[in-house]
Write a sequence for this structure.
C-alpha cells in the first residue's frame, strides 16, 4: 500500500454481484450517496473516492448470515449468497490521522448496508502518519518487565475474586497473601472500579501499603492493575492516586471508556495501561459481523494500551484456540515499532503453560490464572509455584508430568485441574 | 424496581436449562466465578450478587443463532435451543453511577459466555443516582428549537454531500445555497471532521460567515452541526471554535469518541451535541447479539447527546420501520425528566412526512433529507419547500397528493421520488 493510503480488509457476504456490492461499500464510505449530487465531479471522485484494491471470492454461504439484507430481484428469486475477502483503500487526506474518525470511515455505516448479509472488518493497514500522531504503548512488554522485575519467563498473575463485594481492607489482605506467595501481577476485576463499597482511593491506599511493605522487605514489587475505568477527569485523578501511592499499573475497560478516553489517558499516564476488552463479544462473536482482533487491537494499541486481553487456550468463553493464538501473536508483532503485551486469561492454570508457549512462541506475555492459583488444593502459594514450575518445564522442553515428579505443587495442580 | 437497583433486560438463547443458564449470567457479572473461591461468603453473595428478577420463555430457535456455544451433553446430543426474555438486577453499590463501569456490568463478558447461542441487551432501568451523576442532554428538543428558531413543525435538515472532498469554500457555498432555500439545519457527514483537505477551523470560519450574514439579513440562523469528532483536547478546541464563530451545534460520532469522551464534551459544551451513531450496525444488526436502541440510547443520553440518529421510515439501510419508530418514541420519552431529539434520516424526502408524523406522533424531531432536498428536480429551494409543504399537509391531516395540487414543489417531489 502506498504510504499515504489507509487500507482495510473485510469479509463480506452478498446476494448482489460482488463487484457492484463492493463498489457500493467504497461509495458509501467516501464520495458517493444513493443519488449523484452536483458536487460529485469526476476530479473529486478520482482524488477522494475509496478504491477497491482486491476481491478474493470465498465459498458461498448456505443462506444469509444476517437478517435485513435485500437481495436483487425481489422476494421471489432464490438468491445465491456469495462471500469474498475484499480490500478497500482511502487517501489519508480523507480522514487525517485520527482514530475516532478512522472508525467512522472503515466501519461506520457499512454494517447496516442492505446489500450485505454479512460484513466483518478483518484488518487494517495504516500509513505512518498514524504512528506519528499516536505514540502507542508507552511501556509494552519491556517496560512492564522493568516495573515488575520479571525476566526470562512470562509474568504470572491472578485476579481479585470475588469480583465485587470485598472491602478495601479485605482486598489488601488477599493481595498480601498473593504477594507472599510470590505472585508477579494482580488485577482488579472489570466489575470493580470505584464503587461506593470499595472506593478506589481507599483501595489503592490499603493495597499499596501491603505491596510497598513487601517490596521494602524483599525488593520485589508486585504489579497491581487498579481498575481506574471512569470519566475523563476521574481517570486522571485515579491514575495520579495510583502513581502517588507507588503503584505501577492502571487498568481500563476499553469499550466502556472509548477510543478518545483511552488516548487521553495515555497522554497523561506515567504507568502501563492494562487494556481489558470486556464487551469484545459484541464485535467478535459472529463470524460475519463486527470486527476481528487484528483490526480492533490496532485501534487500542495506537490509543495507548500496553497490555491487551486475548483470552487463553481452552478458555471458558466461546473463543477458539486458533483465534487466541492469532491475537497474542498479533500483539507481539510490532505496530509502528511498538509491541503490546498479550494477556492470556480465562480458564488458565499450570497445565496450560506448555501448550501456550508452544503455540504463541514467546515468553512476553502475562499468564493470568484465577481459580488455577486461588483454588490450588494446597493454597495460593502452591498455586503460584505450580505456574512457575509449569513455565520452567515449558521453557526447558520437559513434559509437565515428568517435571512434576519432584515438584509437588505442579503435581497437585495436574491432579486437581487436569483431565 | 427498588430505587437502589440497576436492572437490565436481555433476550437470550441457550441449550442449557434456562434457570441454570440465567444464574450463570448473574454469577459471572457479580460475585461468582467458575469455581467457588474462599471470600465468596453467603453474606457477600446476598448483598452483592446479581438477582434474577424475571424469566419469560419465548419460542424456541431452530438452531443456534451464534457459533461457539457449548450445549450440555456433548456433541452427540440434539440440543433444544430455548429463548427467553430475562431481567437481572444489581445493587447500585456494586458499580456506583458510572456509565463506563455500568457497561462492564450489564454487557461486558456476557456476550462471550459459552452457555449462550444468543444474547442481546434489550433495555436498562437505572436508579435516580445516574440522573444525578449525569446531567443528560443540555438542550434537547426545546433548546434546539430555541437556537434554530423553528416552532410548530419538525426541524428540516440536510447533509453536506459529497461527504468528503469539498474544500471549506465549496462547503460554505453549498451551505449558502441551502440557507437561501430556507433550510433549518445542515450537518457535516460523519466522514468529514477535521481532515487535511478541509480543516475544521477553516470550514467553521467559511461556513459561519455565510450563516451569520444570512442571519443578520433575515433574522433566521440555520443550525449547522459541525463534526468535531476527535481526541479529547481537540474536541474542546473545535467546540470553542464553533461557539466563537457563532455556531449553534456540534456533532460527534458516538462510537468513535466513546462514552467517557462524550460525557467529557458534555461537561464542557455550551452547544447542543448532535449524536451520530455510525457503527451502530455492529450492535443492532443481529437480533440475538449486541444491544437494542433502548439500552444503547440510555448510555448516550446520560452521557449528554441532545440529538440521536434513529434512521428513517423506509431507510436505505437494513433497519425495519417498526424499529425506527420505537427508537424515535424512546428518544421522546423522558429519561430522568429529559428528552432527546430523534434524527430521522436515510432515504428521506417529502413523501415520508405523513407516515413519519402518523407513526411517531410528534413534531419534535429533525427530518434530515439528503437526496430528497439536494436532488429535487427544481433545485434545493424547491426541495426545502417540498418538505415544509409535506409537513403542513401532515399536520393538517390532508393527504399529500391532495395538498400538492396547488403546490408545485411538493407535486414535483411526489412525481420524482414517489412510487
Amino acid at each position: 500500500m502506498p504510504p499515504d493510503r489507509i487500507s482495510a480488509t473485510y469479509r463480506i457476504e452478498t446476494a448482489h454481484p460482488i463487484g457492484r456490492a463492493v463498489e457500493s461499500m467504497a461509495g458509501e464510505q467516501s464520495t458517493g450517496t444513493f443519488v449523484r449530487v452536483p458536487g460529485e465531479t469526476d476530479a473529486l471522485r478520482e482524488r477522494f473516492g475509496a478504491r477497491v484494491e482486491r476481491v478474493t471470492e470465498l465459498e458461498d454461504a448456505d443462506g444469509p448470515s444476517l437478517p435485513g439484507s435485500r437481495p436483487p430481484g425481489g422476494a421471489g428469486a432464490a438468491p445465491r449468497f456469495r462471500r469474498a475477502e475484499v480490500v478497500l483503500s482511502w487517501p489519508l487526506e480523507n480522514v487525517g490521522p485520527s482514530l475516532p474518525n478512522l472508525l467512522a470511515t472503515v466501519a461506520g455505516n457499512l454494517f447496516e448496508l442492505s446489500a450485505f448479509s454479512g460484513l466483518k472488518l478483518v484488518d487494517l493497514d495504516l500509513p505512518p502518519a498514524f504512528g506519528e500522531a499516536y505514540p502507542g504503548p508507552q511501556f509494552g512488554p519491556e517496560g512492564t518487565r522493568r516495573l515488575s522485575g520479571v525476566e526470562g519467563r512470562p509474568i504470572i498473575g491472578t485476579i481479585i475474586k470475588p469480583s465485587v463485594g470485598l472491602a478495601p481492607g479485605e482486598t489488601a489482605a488477599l493481595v498480601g497473601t498473593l504477594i507472599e506467595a510470590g505472585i508477579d501481577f494482580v488485577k482488579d476485576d472489570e466489575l470493580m472500579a470505584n464503587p461506593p463499597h470499595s472506593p478506589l482511593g481507599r483501595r489503592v491506599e490499603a493495597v499499596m501499603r501491603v505491596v510497598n511493605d513487601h517490596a521494602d522487605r524483599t525488593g520485589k514489587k508486585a504489579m497491581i492493575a487498579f481498575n481506574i475505568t471512569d470519566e475523563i477527569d476521574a481517570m486522571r485523578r485515579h491514575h495520579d492516586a495510583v502513581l502517588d501511592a507507588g503503584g505501577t499499573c492502571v487498568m481500563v475497560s476499553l469499550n466502556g471508556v472509548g477510543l478518545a478516553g483511552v488516548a487521553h489517558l495515555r497522554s497523561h499516564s506515567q504507568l502501563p495501561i492494562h487494556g481489558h476488552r470486556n464487551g469484545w463479544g459484541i464485535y467478535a462473536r459472529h463470524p460475519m459481523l463486527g470486527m476481528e482482533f487484528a483490526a480492533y487491537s490496532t485501534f487500542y494499541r495506537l490509543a495507548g494500551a500496553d497490555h491487551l486481553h486475548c483470552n487463553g487456550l481452552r478458555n471458558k468463553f466461546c473463543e477458539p484456540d486458533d483465534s487466541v493464538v492469532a491475537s497474542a501473536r498479533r500483539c507481539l508483532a510490532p505496530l509502528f515499532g511498538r509491541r503490546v503485551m498479550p494477556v492470556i486469561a480465562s480458564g488458565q492454570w499450570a497445565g496450560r503453560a506448555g501448550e501456550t508457549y508452544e503455540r504463541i512462541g514467546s515468553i512476553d506475555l502475562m499468564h493470568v490464572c484465577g481459580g488455577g492459583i486461588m483454588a490450588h488444593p494446597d493454597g495460593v502459594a502452591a498455586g503460584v509455584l505450580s505456574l512457575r514450575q509449569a513455565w520452567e518445564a515449558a521453557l526447558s522442553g520437559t513434559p509437565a508430568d515428568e517435571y512434576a515428579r519432584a515438584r509437588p505443587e505442579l503435581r497437585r495442580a495436574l491432579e486437581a485441574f487436569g483431565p
